[in-house]
Amino acid sequence: MDDGQPPEPQNERPRTRIQRRNTRAILDAALEVFSREGFRGATLDMIAQAAGLSKPNLLYYFSSKEAIHGELLSELMDTWLDPLRELDPAGEPAEEILAYVRRKLEMSRDMPRESRLFANEIIQGAPRMMEAIEGELKTLVDEKAAVIRGWIEAGRIADVDPYHLIFSIWALTQHYADFDVQVRAVLGPGHDPFPEAESFLEMLYTRLLNR
Q: In sequence order, what are the residues at sequence separation of 6 or more whose Cβ sits closer than 8 angstroms to the Cβ of residue 101?
């Protein structure tokens, strides 16, 4: 609920427990609204209502819908890259790739709203995060693709295109978050798709990577 406490001025870091709580409430509410409605369909009124704040109070914390969306994307990018960062060049190649598949599938299970937020941004042409995609994300993917290429050249896994291998992992794991409604409708009520998805993807990539 809106507690009537005066929020801090915009562009300053929250200084009180109430201000920190309200900022987090806004971001959590915005994640729900943006993941459901998309950026264009979401409104500040929707976010304020979901956060339990008045619209004027929300605007003390964030100057616009764009500012809230940008903050969410900034938080998300770091989280999104963590599973790929964990790919260890010193590890066993096939197991490292399978572990990456598992981490991405777990993210789809545990963070479906974040996945849909990211997917919506990409579908729109990434107007608010292209710099991060062309910078931090591309740099990391280039680095890990080089690691995979090294494993291939050493004869440790099958000869596959490293970039398209990574793309396929993104597609096959994020599908379970971005198309959750479709997956559950096809499988039937009460069916948890993730244990079977993990087994299937492990089998698929084990066969693909086997020399």
A: 169, 172, 173, 201, 202, 205
